[in-house]
Every structure is written in structure tokens, then in C-alpha cells.
């Protein structure tokens, strides 16, 4: 039996090592930091002016360029082609090449997650005193610095505040809120933004061309949206797709790998939802899940689709800037005509809540189906504004529905809106405020002939809304029209306390609001004190207000006493003879004025 020849031990070493796309296309210059122009511009200006700080903090989401920017800054500080720091490192000298490869002796990259103990920070402090080997500066890049322990942060404080002149610190983190304020105050902070899907798409397209591959634009757009603002995530995903695609990269292949629905599928599902057809919508979801569709991905796509509907409904960005594909954008422009903005917002609330509930749930498909059924029924629900318009129509009919469980429900007898208003209006039993056909209060003109009736209705409305305030108003001795849309209310000098209470700015505004409701026009009110009238007389309209049976009952009706009796279990045994339920409470020492504001 023939023996197989042994494979030379150095064969594996002869095979070319593959470097992933995210590493091969890592930014090497500040100008290559895509989507972080604000950070690159600030660092370039600091290098040009010689105002480089001793400590920087780079914060932002994963894969947006924090560590890449730290390496570029390290190369710029130690580039050997110039005699001073430069904003454009050469990428050819020994220092630049070593930093790019991650093995420079003067640039130490430390993982905060695995070196988070105080002992590691103490070792770092001991190394700070040694000067750099060949560069100008010794640079410490601490990634995920928020993972350091509290004692490690405390050990780093003094060194971070006053490091030697040859030392620079660059800290990077995705969770800046976990870093102590004492550390933040010692660093210059730069916030890295999410990279827009358009910029990610352009970069991916450039990479595909440089790699010698072909890809549909729709496929690259799907990858860009899936990356959620992370350039590194998009490049890692592209690397996976290029390795698994035998030929041209298509949107169908991307959807199969990611478990997402294609453009036409999302449009069909949105059409069924907007048509209020839950049967068709559920059938679509069921068939897609059987073919490998990821439920979570479909929810993400629906959120993006309804967000596009919201943006178009509000007159938002151009179609090219919508968070959907061009085919979906055209469908959105047509479908937005059949749905209100309120329904779109309600749909987004349902979808985002469903997305949150799916985390950790084993019944994601059920949650999605429940959400889709709710979206289908949103068209059947009237908004508050639409409901009020229906009820305010003259002769509108409102069905009365019995809700008592276990009994035979009576037949639904339609009654008019006017009857409902009459039963529910506490003033309707007194025939004080008639209701018009459209549901508004009938108005009275501000004329001399109508003034007595208007004053009566005014006091009775005030009695219903502000009982204590109405008692003060009832002490007025007279009222008269003092000009166009102007009413003067006079109090006798004997009731100066009532005048003081009613003449406050807040209570004058309250009177004007009540009169506007009764007259349908703006009425200017003046509160006057008639010093010639010393004998107070209550007006005829005031006499119509229900008088208290006795002083005990009057006291029992006061809101303040009700609260006290409920809290303390108190009862009334005696009332002083000089007690006046209409008088305002005595002002405490230091009070400027008496106000009868209620509710």
C-alpha cells in the first residue's frame, strides 16, 4: 500500500496570508476619515499651529474611525520625514510603517477591557518616565477606556493631568458616560458621528472596483443600510458577501445571506397593511419566514419604510436621501397619499415598541404578526379631531351601548347629540346655557338690553367652575357697559376685600375668558371700587345663586375644609358669629395680595 508523501512543513508559510477588507482599506491620512471631517479638521489645525494637547478622548459608536484617527495622529506626531509634527505623515518612514502595522515601540496600543486592573496602570506609569526610542513622543492609545476599574482610573489621574512633555495620551471609548468626570476634564474630547449610508455606499463601491469585483448598486445600498452608520461593519459584511458570491453581487444574494426581504416584498407588505388587509399581510409574512426570512430584519425594514412615509408626508428630503431603495422611494411617494400623518406616527410607535419587545423573546414572529394586524386596523380608528367633527355635525346620532356583563343588552337606540349634551351638561338642568346645533355655547350680545341676562348666565357659569370666586363676584353692587366691548364691575367700599381679590390680573383674565365664551367676542373688563356706596347690596342675579342653609354647611362645602376633614377626620362643632364664607382667607404675614385662584 502506497504511502502518501508528507507535506513540507513550510507549505503553509508559502501560502499568501489574506488581509480582510476592513484592514486593507483602513484610513491612513486625515483626509481619508470618511464622515469625520469635523474631527480631522480640528486635529489638522492643531498640528499646523503647534497646539497639540497632551490627552485626547475619542468617543463614538463602533467602527466609525476612532482607533484609525488615533493611529493617524500618532504617525503625524512621530513622522521622521519632517523635523516637527505634520498633518500629512509620509506613510513611508520607519515610524509611519511601524505605527500602521501596530508594532511601533513608541506607540503603545492598550486594550482597556483586558488591562483594566490598577496593576497594569501602575506599570504604565512607570514606563511614562522613559523617553521614546526614535520618535518625538511616547504615545499611549487606550481603547475601550471605559472598561478600566475605578482604582485604575484613580491611578491614571495624576499622570493624565501632568504627563512628561514627551508623552501623549489618546483614549477611545464607545460608552463615554461610564468615564469619570475627573478623566473627562483632563482630555480634549472629540465625538465621532455615525457615517451616513450615502457615504458608506460610495466607499463600498470604490472598494468593489479596486478589488476587481462587480456588484449591483441596490446590493451595496442594502449593505450600507445594514451597517447602521458603522464603516467597519459595512466593510466586514462586504468581505463576507464577496467571499460567498460566485459572480456579480446582487440584491437577492445579499437578502438571502442577511435574511432580509427584497424591495418588492416590502412594498407588497406595505400595500396590504395600508389597504387594511391583515389576511394578505399575514400570508406574506408566513411564506417569507418559511423561506428563511429573519423576523427582526423585517421589522427593521418596516421601521425604515414607515420613516420614509413620515419624511415624505412632512415634505422631507429628496427621494435620493430617503432611508429606502429607489424602487421603494417611488412606492412611498404614491402610498403616502392614502395615509394620514397621525396614522404614520402611530404605526411607527407600534413598530418601535415591537422591536423593543423582541429582544430576548422566543416568539418574535407572533409579535410581528400582532404588530401588523394593529397597523392594518389603524385605518379604522378615528383621530380625536375626526371624532369631534363627526359629533359636531347637526343631527348626528350617537348609539348608546349597554356595557353591563351578564345581562341581555338592550337594543341600541340612537339619540341626537343635543340630547347627550343636555344629559351630560351640569348646567343643562337649570336651562342656563343653551347648546346650539353644532355643540357650541349660544352667545348673547353685549348690549344694555341683554346685559341682565348675560350677567346672570355669567355668575352661574362662574359658580360651576369657580365657586369661591363666584361668591366674591356676587358681592358686586353694579355692572355697566363702559364702552365698546367694555364692561365695568363695581364693588361697594364695604366689600373692599372682594374688590382686591377680583382685581388681580389673573382673575380679571378669568372674567374675560368667561365673557368671551358667553358673548363670542373679546370683552375688556374693569374692576372698580365705588367709595360712595357704603351699604353693600347684592345684585338680583347674585340672589339667584343657591344660598347656604347655615354657616356649618357653608364651611363644610369649602375645598380646604374638605381636605382637612379627610386628612384629620375632623367635624364641625362651632362656627364663630363673624364667620363669612364669602370672605377671602386672611393673608399670611408677608403676603402682598389675596388671590382666589382655583383649579
TrEMBL record:
The superkingdom listed in its UniProt entry is: Bacteria
Q: Where in the sequence is the signal peptide annotated?
A: none
Q: Where is this region: Disordered?
A: 576-599
- What does this protein's UniProt record list under function? DNA polymerase III is a complex, multichain enzyme responsible for most of the replicative synthesis in bacteria. This DNA polymerase also exhibits 3' to 5' exonuclease activity.
GO CC term, one of those recorded: DNA polymerase III complex
A Pfam family that this protein carries is: DNA_pol3_gamma3
Give the reactions, separated by semicolons, that this protein catalyses: DNA(n) + a 2'-deoxyribonucleoside 5'-triphosphate = DNA(n+1) + diphosphate
Q: Which organism is it from?
A: Frigoriglobus tundricola
Q: Which PANTHER family match?
A: PROTEIN STICHEL-LIKE 2 (PTHR11669:SF0), REPLICATION FACTOR C / DNA POLYMERASE III GAMMA-TAU SUBUNIT (PTHR11669)
**Record's subunit section:** DNA polymerase III contains a core (composed of alpha, epsilon and theta chains) that associates with a tau subunit. This core dimerizes to form the POLIII' complex. PolIII' associates with the gamma complex (composed of gamma, delta, delta', psi and chi chains) and with the beta chain to form the complete DNA polymerase III complex.
Matching SMART domains: AAA
Supply one GO molecular-function term: DNA binding
Q: Which InterPro entries match?
A: AAA+_ATPase, DNA_pol3_clamp-load_cplx_C, DNA_pol_III_gamma-3, DNA_pol_III_sug/sutau_N, DNA_Rep/Repair_Clamp_Loader, HLD_clamp_pol_III_gamma_tau, P-loop_NTPase
The UniProt entry, under CDD domains, shows: AAA (cd00009), HLD_clamp_pol_III_gamma_tau (cd18137)
Single Gene Ontology BP annotation: DNA-templated DNA replication
Supply the alphabetized keyword list.
ATP-binding, DNA replication, DNA-directed DNA polymerase, Metal-binding, Nucleotide-binding, Nucleotidyltransferase, Transferase, Zinc
Q: What is this protein called?
A: DNA polymerase III subunit gamma/tau
Member of which family?
Belongs to the DnaX/STICHEL family.
Amino acid at each position: 500500500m502506497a504511502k502518501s508523501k508528507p507535506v513540507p512543513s513550510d507549505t503553509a508559510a508559502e501560502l499568501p496570508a489574506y488581509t480582510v477588507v476592513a484592514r486593507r482599506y483602513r484610513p491612513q491620512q486625515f483626509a481619508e476619515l470618511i464622515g469625520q471631517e469635523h474631527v480631522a479638521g480640528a486635529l489638522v489645525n492643531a498640528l499646523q499651529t503647534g497646539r497639540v494637547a497632551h490627552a485626547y478622548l475619542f468617543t463614538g459608536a463602533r467602527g466609525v474611525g476612532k482607533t484609525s484617527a488615533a493611529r493617524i495622529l500618532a504617525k503625524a506626531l512621530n513622522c521622521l520625514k519632517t523635523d516637527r509634527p505634520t498633518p500629512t505623515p509620509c506613510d513611508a518612514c520607519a515610524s509611519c510603517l511601524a505605527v500602521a502595522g501596530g508594532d511601533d515601540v513608541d506607540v503603545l496600543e492598550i486594550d482597556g477591557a483586558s488591562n483594566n486592573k490598577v496593576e497594569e496602570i501602575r506599570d504604565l506609569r512607570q514606563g511614562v518616565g522613559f523617553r521614546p526610542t526614535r520618535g518625538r513622543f511616547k504615545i499611549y492609545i487606550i481603547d475601550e477606556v471605559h472598561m478600566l476599574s475605578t482604582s485604575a482610573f484613580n491611578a491614571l489621574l495624576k499622570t493624565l493631568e501632568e504627563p512628561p512633555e514627551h508623552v501623549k495620551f489618546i483614549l477611545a471609548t464607545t460608552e463615554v458616560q461610564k468615564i469619570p468626570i475627573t478623566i473627562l476634564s483632563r482630555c480634549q474630547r472629540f465625538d465621532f458621528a455615525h457615517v451616513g449610508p450615502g457615504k458608506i455606499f460610495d466607499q463600498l463601491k470604490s472598494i468593489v472596483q479596486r478589488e476587481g469585483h462587480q456588484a449591483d448598486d441596490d446590493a451595496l445600498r442594502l449593505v450600507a443600510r445594514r451597517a447602521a452608520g458603522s464603516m467597519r461593519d459595512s466593510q466586514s459584511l462586504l468581505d463576507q458577501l464577496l467571499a460567498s458570491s460566485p459572480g456579480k453581487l446582487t440584491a437577492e444574494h445579499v437578502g438571502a445571506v442577511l435574511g432580509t426581504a427584497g424591495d418588492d416584498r416590502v412594498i407588497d407588505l406595505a400595500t396590504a397593511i395600508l389597504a387594511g388587509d391583515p389576511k394578505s399581510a399575514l400570508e406574506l409574512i408566513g411564506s417569507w419566514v418559511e423561506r428563511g426570512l429573519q423576523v427582526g430584519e423585517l421589522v427593521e425594514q418596516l421601521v425604515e419604510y414607515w420613516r420614509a412615509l413620515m419624511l415624505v408626508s412632512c415634505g422631507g428630503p429628496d427621494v435620493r436621501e430617503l432611508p429606502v431603495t429607489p424602487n421603494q422611494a417611488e412606492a412611498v411617494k404614491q402610498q403616502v397619499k392614502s395615509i394620514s400623518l397621525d396614522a404614520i406616527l402611530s404605526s411607527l410607535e407600534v413598530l418601535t415598541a415591537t422591536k423593543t419587545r423582541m429582544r430576548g423573546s422566543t416568539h418574535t414572529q407572533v409579535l410581528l404578526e400582532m404588530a401588523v394586524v394593529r397597523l392594518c386596523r389603524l385605518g379604522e380608528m378615528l383621530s380625536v379631531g375626526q371624532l369631534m367633527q363627526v359629533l359636531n355635525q347637526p343631527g348626528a346620532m350617537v348609539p348608546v351601548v349597554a356595557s353591563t356583563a351578564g345581562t341581555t343588552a338592550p337594543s341600541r337606540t340612537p339619540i341626537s347629540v343635543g340630547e347627550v349634551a343636555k344629559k351630560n351638561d351640569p348646567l343643562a338642568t337649570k336651562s342656563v346655557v343653551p347648546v346650539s346645533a353644532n355643540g357650541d355655547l349660544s352667545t348673547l350680545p353685549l348690549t344694555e338690553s341683554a346685559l341682565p341676562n348675560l350677567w346672570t348666565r355669567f355668575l352661574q357659569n362662574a359658580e360651576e367652575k369657580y365657586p369661591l370666586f363666584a361668591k366674591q363676584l356676587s358681592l358686586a353692587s353694579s355692572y355697566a357697559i363702559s364702552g365698546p366691548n367694555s364692561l365695568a364691575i363695581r364693588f361697594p367700599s364695604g366689600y373692599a376685600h372682594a374688590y382686591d381679590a377680583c382685581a388681580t390680573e389673573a382673575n380679571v383674565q378669568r372674567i374675560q375668558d368667561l365673557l368671551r365664551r358667553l358673548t363670542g367676542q373679546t370683552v375688556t373688563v374693569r374692576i372698580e371700587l365705588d367709595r360712595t356706596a357704603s351699604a353693600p347690596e347684592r345684585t338680583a342675579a347674585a340672589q339667584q345663586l343657591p344660598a347656604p342653609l347655615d354657616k356649618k354647611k357653608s364651611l363644610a362645602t369649602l375645598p380646604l375644609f374638605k381636605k382637612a376633614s379627610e386628612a384629620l377626620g375632623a367635624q364641625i362643632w362651632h362656627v364663630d358669629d363673624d364667620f363669612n364664607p364669602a370672605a377671602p382667607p386672611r393673608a399670611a404675614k408677608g403676603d402682598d395680595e389675596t388671590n382666589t385662584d382655583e383649579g
